[in-house]
């Protein structure tokens, strides 16, 4: 499966591809025949992705909710970012999205385009009624992405803001 937008191709990684990502982005790029991004996962992201990978292995039948979704810029055939869900929908039908984009590609609308597409996919799943996200309070660019996806603030602390969108019934 792939999600296709005007400028992007978004691929939910298979378990094998996800493992390659954890072994090094360059290995995944070779497997997917992508141009080299010369990126690597920072320590926190690596740790988070390893946890998600373990959950994906345990939940193979629902791995879309645990895998990394690679965001590929079609014009360059290059991975420019990624997104993921933190787990499968809970008993309330809520699923949380997380994402990031390589600094070179920020402020071009790519993350909004990708997030909208991934949210549309999630909404189309029968067991999803709420999509949520958490951002750092000072991450204005991420706030704009979520607002453009139709999310609204519902909780705020000194450091974070939580966002959500309820699916129309």
Give a verbal description of the structure:
- This protein is an alpha+beta fold and 169 residues long.
- The chain has helices at residues 15-23, 25-31, 43-58, 110-123, 140-148, and strands at residues 3-4, 8-12, 68-73, 78-85, 94-101, 130-136, 152-156, 160-166.
- It has an eight-stranded mixed sheet with strand order 1-2-3-4-5-6-8-7.
- Strand 1 (3-4) and strand 2 form a beta hairpin.
List keywords for this structure.
single chain; 169 residues; alpha+beta; 8-stranded mixed beta sheet; 5 helices; 33% helix; globular
Question: What would you say about this model in short?
Answer:
The chain has helices spanning 15-23, 25-31, 43-58, 110-123, 140-148; strands at 3-4, 8-12, 68-73, 78-85, 94-101, 130-136, 152-156, 160-166. It is of the alpha+beta class and 169 residues long.
Set out the fold topology.
Blueprint: E1 3-4, E2 8-12, H1 15-23, H2 25-31, H3 43-58, E3 68-73, E4 78-85, E5 94-101, H4 110-123, E6 130-136, H5 140-148, E7 152-156, E8 160-166
Parallel strand pairs: 5-6
Antiparallel strand pairs: 1-2, 2-3, 3-4, 4-5, 6-8, 7-8
Helix pairs in contact: 1-2, 1-3, 4-5
| Main structural class | alpha+beta
What percent of residues are in strands?
25-35%
Strand order of the largest sheet: 1-2-3-4-5-6-8-7
Helix content: 25-40%
Number of strand elements: 8
Biggest sheet overview: 8 strands, mixed
What is the gyration radius calculated from CA atoms?
15 Å
Low-confidence stretches: none
The overall pLDDT average reads 94
How far from one another are the termini? 26 Å
Q: So how many helices?
A: 5
């Amino acid at each position: 499966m792939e999600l296709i937008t005007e400028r992007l191709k978004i691929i939910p990684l298979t378990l094998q591809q996800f493992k390659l990502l954890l072994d090094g982005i360059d290995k995944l790029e070779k497997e997917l025949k992508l141009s080299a991004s010369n990126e690597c996962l920072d320590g926190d992201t690596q740790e988070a992705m390893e946890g998600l990978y373990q959950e994906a292995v345990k939940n193979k039948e629902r791995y879309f909710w645990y895998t990394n979704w690679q965001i590929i810029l079609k014009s360059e055939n290059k991975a420019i970012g990624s997104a993921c869900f933190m787990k499968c929908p809970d008993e309330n039908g809520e699923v949380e999205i997380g994402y990031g984009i390589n600094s070179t590609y920020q402020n071009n609308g790519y993350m909004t385009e990708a997030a909208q597409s991934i949210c549309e996919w999630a909404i189309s799943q029968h067991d999803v009624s709420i999509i949520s996200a958490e951002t750092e309070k000072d991450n204005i660019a991420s706030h704009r992405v979520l607002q453009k996806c139709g999310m609204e603030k519902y909780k705020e602390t000194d450091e974070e803001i939580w966002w959500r969108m309820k699916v129309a019934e």
